[in-house]
User: Fold these one by one.
Assistant:
Number 1:
Amino acid sequence: MKATIGKALFNSYSYLEYRKILSDLLRDEKSSGNEQSKELTNYSSLNETRMNRLDKTIKIQPEVSVKLKELKGEYIWMVLSEGWCGDAAQLLPIMDKMAITSEGKIELKIVFRDENEELMNLFLTNKGKAIPKLILINRETGTALAHWGPRPKGAVDLIANYKKEHGQIDETIKADLQMWYLHDKGLSTQSEIIDMMIDLDQ
């Protein structure tokens, strides 16, 4: 696992680098990832607008900010993502702000899922390649300590309940999920991730 993580880190990007790659692809009417379609490009375009908005509006809660700065260790957050992923667009701006707020305790690195299949296969969700997937790495040892994602619990429950009732994921629940994120304002994500960090930062 350590070799796989090291290889992925070598091919990782900062948040700003990731955003630039996605923007450059969109200028060529493409999305990231192995599969290309008009639908995926449209999702990517929508997600760029979404991330632009969240970059300006996301606020890290004061208590979360304090806990981030009080972390004893130093960590890398390596996140598996793709430009077409709606959940990633909602969550990466939060992770970026949390990393910045940590004042050097956390470094955010992003890798593309389809370019890092070996890594993705180590962190499946119910046997699926669900993203985004945040892998918490000890910076000193390069060891993976935990992982989180692809969604905060409230969003996971929303999808699971809809799928149980309707048998599939469709455009209705996708719209409902985006509304859930809008109303949550990143609070659940901040809370779940900082709780995970504190549990491991002993």
Number 2:
Amino acid sequence: MSRIIGAETTGRAEIRFQGKTAAFWTVTLMLAAAVMLSGTGQLMQYGGNVELVTKLGYPLYILTILGLWKVLGAVALVVPGFPRLKEWVHAGIFFLMTGAALSHAFANDYGDYGFHIMLPLFYAALNIASWMLRPKNRKL
């Protein structure tokens, strides 16, 4: 009888582990894609990036700095290994996104329906979810 209970417990643990792994990769790939696209747009000064940065009062060279950091961070999130680097990337994305939301709030630049504040905060939440769901081999 203990064998049946033990087998059942093992089966449940494997399903939970696979579900957590799938959730981690889904959230992490969404985050990495969003950060990569945002960073690429900033590096290329594409779309409304120039107007947005100018409206907030930042110099244009900040687009190059932030864009480069975002692209490198997105790559670091998905490459295997380097758990300490991934910790730094998660911290950087959190500070970057909350700083973006605060910059828009302080500049009274909320966008339509608060989009300029809600989107960075959504990415910060996605970042926290990715960090919390990370597997043991990605923890320090």
